[in-house]
Design a protein that fits this description.
- There is one protein chain.
- By secondary structure, the chain is of the alpha+beta class.
- It has 3 domains: 81 residues, no CATH class; 40 residues; 223 residues, Beta-galactosidase, Chain A, domain 5, CATH 2.70.98.
- It contains 5 helices and 20 strands.
- The strands form 3 sheets. The chain has an 8-stranded antiparallel sheet, with no helix packed on it. Strands 6, 7, 8, 9, 14, 18 and 19 form a 7-stranded antiparallel sheet that branches.
Length: 378
């Protein structure tokens, strides 16, 4: 109970405390995310506000406790930014084996992190690893194959893909997030959130985490959880239908020289949709050479957004069709090339395409021009 405190960093309100029985090593302190007059015992507490209180009590981030600053936050198997209370228990052994390989072999999760992602105990995870003969510590000495397509996997959750600004991404949904591993380092990856958000003339129509209210929150509607599906060709596919008839989906396809994305939206309502702005986020925190929390290592030249490595000779580049804004957030840290769908009439489907690649060289602008000529987002 002394090695870690668990809290959400979300404004100045007093924290609420409650026991964590699944993971007793943690002391949980959670901010209610509500102004005090809106608490349940006060007049005017709406169902949507009560749902926000519920979500805040179910989602927490592990950070070093201020009472144990002399201890290493990695000890005990947990590191800062571990997500608690948002786990998904695998329904069968096939799913369990797949997620263990994903988390432990590829993402290098500790058993504690994998347990949080799968709503299990660390003892259950270790037992399953032994049963499936999966090493608890992945072999980092196996070299990458430069001729192989870039490694792309569903992001498993459990470990927050951000390094900061956690209050801006509470309860992150893994069904929109894919990890792209660096071609020269099998232990490092960027996490692409596609889509992170979709805006329309109706308001915030979809958000891949909890932060500001969507159009569904005032109605007390909670969207069901989904998972990526992998096709025979290896493409990751996700499709979601919203309660008002709007549907959207993502495709992530890996190649040797980059990753292609396709994002589509179908209007199943009786009215035209406009103002269809999308946020697609490339989170850099799990690729240490690109992870400094600053904007000075980033270049924005719409539709391109790029970040250079600490030594300035490697780059991560992303771009999207119909880019409305190229930008980044230094706290996360992340890159954005945010597209805008064309207006969409009833029964119509619109789409945009995106790209992510890695580049080695001192100057990135010539690579932007090469990618433009190659038509990577056409």
């Amino acid at each position: 109970m002394d090695s870690h405190a668990i809290e959400v960093i979300q404004g100045p309100h007093p924290f609420l405390a409650y026991p964590n029985r699944t993971h007793p090593f943690a002391t949980n302190r959670v901010n209610p995310l509500l102004s005090m007059p809106a608490l349940p015992h006060c007049p005017g507490a709406s169902p949507s506000r009560l749902r926000w209180l519920f979500l805040s009590l179910c989602w927490i981030v592990a950070v070093p406790s201020p009472t144990d600053g002399s201890q290493d936050p990695i000890e005990g198997g947990l590191s800062p930014g571990v997500v608690v209370g948002n786990g998904r228990r695998p329904p069968d052994d096939v799913d369990l084996r797949d997620w263990l390989n994903n988390m432990v072999t590829h993402h290098r999760f500790t058993p504690d992190e994998a347990a949080l992602a799968m709503d299990m105990t660390a003892a259950e995870v270790r037992q399953a690893l032994r049963r499936f003969e999966i090493p608890e510590t992945a072999d980092s000495s196996v070299p990458s194959d430069p001729a192989a397509p870039l490694s792309v996997l569903p992001y498993p959750g459990g470990r927050h893909p951000r390094l900061g600004f956690f209050d801006g991404a509470i309860a992150p949904q893994r069904e929109t997030k894919a990890s792209v591993f660096l071609p020269w380092d099998r232990t490092a990856y960027v996490v692409v959130d596609v889509p992170e958000a979709i805006f329309s003339n109706l308001g915030l129509t979809y958000l891949a985490h909890t932060h500001i209210p969507t159009i569904w929150d005032p109605q007390g509607i909670r969207l069901p959880t989904l998972e990526w599906r992998r096709t025979g060709s290896g493409t990751l596919v996700m499709e979601r239908s919203l309660p008002n008839g709007i549907a959207f989906g993502s495709e992530v396809s890996s190649q040797t020289n980059g990753v292609r994305f396709r994002l589509w939206l179908r209007n199943g309502t009786t009215n035209a949709l406009s103002g269809l702005r999308v946020q697609n986020c490339v989170m850099l925190g799990r690729a240490p050479e690109f992870a400094p929390q600053t904007l000075t290592n980033k270049v924005f030249s719409a539709p391109f957004a790029a970040v250079k490595s600490r030594h300035g000779q490697r780059w991560v580049i992303t771009a999207w069709q119909h880019c409305g804004r190229a930008w980044g957030n230094e706290q996360v840290p992340c890159l954005h090339s945010d597209p805008v769908f064309p207006d969409c009439a009833p029964a119509q489907t619109v789409q945009v395409k995106g790209w992510l690649s890695f580049f080695e060289g001192a100057a990135v602008q010539p690579e932007f021009e090469r990618l433009r000529r190659a038509g990577v987002i056409e």
